[in-house]
Every structure is written in structure tokens, then in C-alpha cells.
Amino acid sequence: MDPENKSKGPSPHYSLYQREVFKRGGETGELPTFSVHPEELQDSTRKKLNDRGYFYANSNAGLGWTDRANREAFYRWRIIPRTCVDTNTRDLTVNIFGHRIPAPIMFAPIGINKLYHPLGELVPAKIAGELGIPYCLSTAGSQSIEDVARANDTGASVRNESNSVWSYNGPNGGNAQSPRFFQLYMGHDDEITLSLITRAWKAGFDALMLTTDTWQLAWRPTDINIANYTFYYKNTPGNEIGVSDPVFMRKHGEDLEKDSGKWIDHSVWHGKAHTWEKVKWVIGEWKKISGGRPFVLKGIQNVADARRARDIGCDGIVVTNHAGRQVDGAVGSLEVLPEIAEAVGNDMTIIFDSGVRTGADVFKALALGAHVVEVGRLYVWGMSHEGEYGCRHVMKSLLADLDILMTVAGYQSIQKDVHGNKDALRYSPSGVPPGPGDHAKL
Asked: Does the UniProt entry include the keyword Oxidoreductase (predicted)?
């Protein structure tokens, strides 16, 4: 970790973050305020949040078997290291929708971030801007579309003015701008839908992501136990995007004063599924509004749906089971990724989501055909501890983890050596990962 051995490649020297932590501890005794070991981090988050906040982030469908399946799928794929490879200059950059981003990681859409910190979505949006990686805002967010965009721009300004290893220059020398996603939960009032996506486009969100696996929330026993539906409680966050929307307020503002659940019940988790025809409609409307910018469908778990998404005009898909939160007893998302990537990976961008915890997880998803991965619970756990510092610490740690893994495993370039390279992995059909808390027994 010689600091003079700075990367001459296009990627920031993420691995130096480990050295920075070690140096602070050795020279001043300053230690991180919480563990970034994923299981320890989840455990400590339980102590930071009240029940409603903790279980909103961590509840799963049914018995939680799909969440377990996600982690088991990662466990069964094993990395095959190489040696004596010149990895002194590494390239973690990937191209996504015309943008070159410094690492194949993006912030997943998670709602109601004010449950984890008073500034809510402003925290991860700013950190994403600082790191130069994509941010995705949920329709169930607890800050307005416009305020989140400004926070993301603020983070990008910090990055552009910095000379640190976290600055990232684009392929032509200028500071790269990562794509900014708006994740749409589409209601059945087209006028409100058009208002939301128009606002997103005007605020600088240049990719639209439609979620199709959550027309309504799954049966989640740990939420049932405490009636954990924040929108039905008075003076709680979650209505901000609706309250800041002129069309919704014109139509339902008075109703919202009487029923705090009007926004969520009408326009977000309304319980009435859409069809492929409706998806085609919103693709067309987004393309008209944005001048043809990317449209991504989130919730793909099989080849037939992936092909259908491609054929109706989607530019990308998110292979995800909503992190095990919607269908209990379902396949792990990584299990179906290889066949989906083989079917459509040359035709569209594949984003992977569900169960990503480490740099090794990122590596495996990319080797199995994903172009970029989404990270969700990790950054929520981080911001629950220390706000901006916590979110930044978790994401810098994940980037350092991936960078160091590339070095010690002998892989120089994400796009040339890892993406779609199944020879970098071996599948083991037996065994399951350690259960929660087992790390403490080792």
C-alpha cells in the first residue's frame, strides 16, 4: 500500500482507503466508529434505529427464505485467483448508457430514508455525487425530486473540486457525470405519472427505472408484528414526493389532509398490477419527454421476461427479487443471472441487485454477466450510524474491497478480464454460507 504507487489507470486508487484507516489508527489511535463487516454492521444497526426504522430496511417476505437464497447463491460461486499478473494499474471503469463510471456499483432505490437519518435521501445522493457513481431515487422517497437532484449535484461539485484519489476524470479529461436514475412506482393515474417523470427529467434524472415486482407489499411478518407502515402514522416521512407534486396535490391534496396514506395507496403501492402494454406506454412517454434517454425495467427473474422487456424497447433490466422482500421461497437472483445474461446481455444493459454485500459479490455478479450492481441495505446501514460519514465509510470500504480483490486475485480490468468471464469462477453445488452471528464463533 505504498502511497507513491498511485494508479496511473482511469480508476481512482480505492485501495488506499484501507491504508488511510490503518494510518489513522496507528498514528492517532482514531478508529472507525462502527464495523463494516456486513453481518456486524447489520447487528449494530439494530441498536441505532427504533423498530420501525430497522424492520423497514430489514424485513423480508414470509420466512425470509428468498433473502437466504440470495446469499447462498453467492456462496456457491467461488472465485479462481490468478497469480503473477500485472495489476499495478487497474481499470474498474465500466460504460453504462453512454457514461463511463469509475466502478461498476450504483446506489439502489430505497424509500423513506428519513427513517435512517433526518436528511433522508439527501445523504446518499450527495455521497453518490462525491464518488461519481450512479444514484437512483425511489418514488417512495422522503425528499422531493428536486432537492435530491441538488444534493447529488453538490456531491459532484465536491468531487470536481477535489484533488484526492476519489476524483474521477472522464475519458476525455473532463470530470465524468454519472447517470442519475429515477425509480418509478407507477400508479393508475396517467396525469400524475407524467408529472413525476417530467419533474425527474427536468431535475436531471436522465434514466427512468420502472419497478414491476411491488405493486403492493408482500406479507412481511416482522412488519406485521408492529404494524410497520409508516405512511399511516401522522407526522411521519414518506409523502414528500407526492406533496411536492402539483398534479397530485391538485387532485388529492384535501384527501391527504384527512388520510395520510392517500399518496402511497393511490400512486405507489396501490395493489393493482400493470401489464406489458402499460409498460410500452410509459416507455414511449419517457422517450418523448427525455429525447430518447434510457428506460430500465426492474424486477426480472427469468429469460422470457428479459426477452419481452428487450422486445418492447427497454434499454436495460434489473435482475432482482427485491432483495427477498416480495416473494418468499423464490430463486436467488444470482441463480438466474447467467441464463438471463446469455439471452439478452449483448442487447441491453444488465443491472444486478439483491444480496450484494462485498467486493467479491460484485466480482461474481459481473463475471456472470451483469454490467453493474446495485447496493441498497449496505448504504442504509451506514447512514443509520453516522449520516454522511457512515454512508461514505461503507461505500468507500466496498470500493476498496473490490479494488484490493482485483489486485490480489490477479484481474486487471473489469470490462476486459471480469465481465462475462465464467472461467473466473467455479460453481460448488454443496454447502451453505454461515448463518447470522456465526462469524462471531469463528
From this structure: yes
Taking only the tens of pLDDT, the chain with its 442 residues reads: 676 765 567 888 899 999 999 999 999 999 999 999 999 999 999 999 999 899 998 999 999 999 999 999 999 999 999 999 999 889 999 999 999 999 999 999 999 999 999 999 999 999 999 999 999 999 999 999 999 999 999 998 887 665 454 555 444 333 446 789 999 999 999 999 999 999 999 999 999 999 999 988 999 999 999 999 988 887 778 899 999 999 999 999 999 888 989 999 999 999 999 999 999 999 999 999 999 999 999 999 999 999 999 999 999 999 999 998 999 999 999 999 999 999 999 999 999 999 999 999 999 999 999 999 999 999 999 999 999 999 999 999 999 999 999 999 999 999 999 999 999 999 998 877 776 555 444 4
Binding residue per annotation — 52? Answer: no
Q: Which amino acid is at 186?
A: M
* Active site (catalytic) residues: 322
Find the angle CA(202)-CA(206)-CA(212) to the nearest 5 degrees.
Answer: 110
Residue 272 lies in a domain: yes
Integer angstrom CA distances of residue 5 from 9, 13, 167, 252, 333: 12, 9, 17, 59, 38
* CATH code of 409's domain: 3.20.20.70
Which range of residues forms the domain containing residue 287? Answer: 16-430
Q: Is 353 annotated as a binding residue?
A: yes
354 is in an annotated binding site: yes
Residue 9 within a domain: no
With beta carbons less than 8 A apart as the criterion, state whether 376 and 128 touch: no
360 CB-contact burial (10 Å; exposed 0-12 / middle 13-18 / buried 19+): middle
- Is 62 marked within a binding site? no
78 is in an annotated binding site: no
Structural domain contains residue 104: yes
